[in-house]
Amino acid sequence: MASDDEFQALFDRFKAMLAPYAERMHVSADAPGFYGVDMAPESERTPATWFARTRLGKRYVSYYLMPIYVQPSLGDDLSPALQKRRQGKSCFNLTRVDEALLSELEALTARGYEATSGDVGWGAARRAERAEVQAR
Question: How far is the first Cα of the chain from the last one, in angstroms, to the nearest whole number?
Answer without folding.
Answer: 47
